[in-house]
Amino acid sequence: MNELDEKKLNKLSIDELSRLFMDNINEQNLQLISGIESLIEEDFKVFKEKLNYVIKTTTEVQIKKAFENKIFKSKLMFSKADRLKLFSKINDVKNIGEFMANRLLLYKVVFPDEEFKGYLLSILKSLRTISLKLSKAVKLIGSDLRESYQICEDIKEERRKMRREEWKLLNRLYNYDMDYLSRTFLYLKEMIEDIMMLADHIKSFSEYIQFLATKYLIFD
Amino acid sequence: MTEITSLLVTILVIMAISLAFSIGANDETLSVLVGAGLIKFKIALIIGGIAIGSGMVFFSGGYVAKTVGADILGKGIQYTTFMLLTVLISSILWLVVGSFAGIPLSSTHSLIGSVVGVVIIYAIFQGSINLGVAFNWEKLMNVIISWIISPLAGLIITYLIFKILVKVYLYRLKGLNQIEKSEKYFKWILLVVVIFAEIWVGANSGEALGILYGLLDNNSLNTQQYFIFASVCGIFAFLGIYIAARYVIKNLASQMIDSRPSEGIILQFSSSIILMIATLFGLPISHSHVVVFCILGLSLAQKKEIDYKALGKMALYWILTFPVAAILSGLIYYGLVSIGFI
What is the phi/psi pair of residue B135, to 5°? Predict the structure, then answer.
């Protein structure tokens, strides 16, 4: 990804920087998901490209720097600490994604069967949905906390659905006739756990957004 | 005897000035303004100090000072310097005991309680005055009733102001940007409201000026001396804020950085309105009691949980302050009379 213009970045408001940061991280998340889908289709070239995109993209570092500079100098505000925490939570999504990408690139896995692939695709579909919804919820914090709160409810519901699928998938994995220490088993198990970790973080993030909505909105 | 009286008057004036300093030193009104980060800390202290000092000086010609220093007493009775000294010693002693015991007490209630105790003993053992005329009962009852009404009025006013503000404005704010933008404007209103509040905190501080007014009323001070010392009290209230209150204010302000200026406005405005009305009626009331009930009103309006047990305990101490201070001052004064000191 191209470097961002520093001058332009510095002109953006705290809210605009947060939204840009979220867009950036969401884009990397989508690339990660899409990369895993390529792995399922055994298109290793695309898989590698997409995961390397996640690892090598550093534009978010520039945005983060501009944001921190801005919020430190900002004469705002009673919401300063919450804005900072929000930003760091977005950053955590990137860290988890990058960790996943690095781990997934360690080994060239071949999936056990089509049914396993089907389950995994279904989970990835949910992960994509909650990732997109989270991005929307974060971007709405500035303009509509009620709508943002509602989206987070949807995320939590989708996460619940996703968790059931994950347990089915893990159950299936443990019932394959594979050696306990086989690399494939370990790889798949860790992949599922990493997806769970990312989804859990998105859920906890959405709960934080709901906390913010409850904190700042005044109900009649 | 004249020398002793002069010495006592000097001591009383010094104590009154020290009390003015402690009023400034204990004032926390500015913390909400400092927490909002609108103006620099030192500037906030200077503005707050000037406001409290001005309130004290401009309203020293009557109002609360007159009530405490003269009007509360019945016709035909005046404070002696020993009575004033006992009042001060007793109320300070009770406040110190309260502080060591961790009991939040009102200096106003303590002072009036001490006045009542001393006057009763004086009327019975020294002046042979019927208790029916020892006090201006109407004024005294008004003061005591105002102690009940003022916190309750603070609660109701805060509740209503919050509800109205929510209905007409706050409810419409949807996003964090909108909320931040509006709170930015609220900060400037907060500055005005805090200055207004500080003026009335100073104006309702009967402890220091009440003593001086008592000295004026018994001719220990002339009018010119009274206003000079009242002005010195104003300056010392300013210094109290600038020198001593800064630590409390800084500490409280750091806990308030994420509190909303609009809530600060509601609290300060409600409490200052109550203080203003009480001052104009010459009623010395407890600022801290009013503020606690204003916070309670806001919490009720926001449907927040309230610790009724702690509140009940606090209310008990508030109720006890007046009789305990009266008994303590009565005992001290009686002791001084018994040993022939007075």
Answer: -120, 155
What is the tens place of the pLDDT at every residue in B111-164?
899 999 999 888 887 777 777 788 888 889 999 999 999 999 999 999 999 999
For residue B184, give both structure tokens.
Answer: 């930015």
State the Cα–Cα distance between residues A146 and A84, nearest whole angstrom.
21
Q: What is the DSSP letter of B105?
A: -
Q: Is B258 on the interface with A (CB under 8 A)?
A: yes
Q: How far is CA B205 from CA B11, B79, B305, in A?
A: 20, 19, 32
Please name every residue paired with B73 in a beta bridge, in sequence order, or none if there are none. Answer: B135
Q: Looking at CA atoms only, how far is residue B185 from chain A in angstroms?
A: 12
Residue ranges of B 27-46 with Cβ closer than 8 A to chain A: 36-37
> What domains sit in chain A, N to C, each tagged with a CATH number?
6-216 (1.20.58.220)
Distance CA A53, CA A45 (A): 12
Rg over alpha carbons for chain B, rounded to the nearest Å, is: 21
pLDDT band, residue B336 (cuts 50/70/90): confident
Contact A80 B258 (CB under 8 A): yes
What count of other Cβ atoms lies within 10 Å of the Cβ of residue A164? 9
Is pLDDT of B197 > 70?
Answer: yes
Which whole number is the average pLDDT over A84-95?
Answer: 90
Residue A130 carries which DSSP code? Answer: H
Residues 275-314 of B with CB under 8 A from A: 302
Least CB-CB distance to A218: which of B166, B257, B259?
Answer: B166
Cα–Cα separations (whole angstroms), residue B185 to A76, A93, A154, B191, B262: 12, 35, 35, 10, 9
Tokens of B111: 């002072």
The backbone torsions φ and ψ at residue B220, rounded to the nearest 5 degrees and listed phi first, read -75, -25
Asked whether the predicted pLDDT for residue B36 surpasses 80, the reply is no
Alpha-carbon gap, residue A25 to A86, rounded angstroms: 13
Give the DSSP letter string of B179-221.
HHHHHHHHHHHHHHHHHHHHHHHHHT-HHHHHHHHHHHHTTSS
User: Which residues in chain B are closer than 8 Å to A141, comparing Cβ atoms?
Assistant: 175-176
Residue type at B17 in one-letter notation: I
Which residues in chain A have their CB less than 8 angstroms from residue B179's CB? 79, 216
| Distance separating alpha carbons of residues B160 and B172, to the nearest angstrom | 18
pLDDT tier for residue A1 given thresholds of 50, 70 and 90: very low
pLDDT tens digit string along B227-258? 999 899 999 989 988 888 788 788 777 776 66
Pick from B40, B165, B176, B185 the residue to mutate for testing the A interface (most A CBs within 10 Å): B176
Out of A77, A140, A219, whose CB is closest to B180?
A77
CA distance A188 to A109: 8
Give the 3-state DSSP-derived string for B25-46, with helices as H, strands as E and coil as C: HCCCCCHHHHHHCCCCHHHHHH
User: CB within 8 A of A206, min separation 6: which ones?
Assistant: A130, A133, A134, A137, A151, A152, A155, A156
List the single residue in A with minimal CA-CA distance to B174.
A144
- Find, among B160, B105, B171, the residue nearest to B270 by Cα: B160
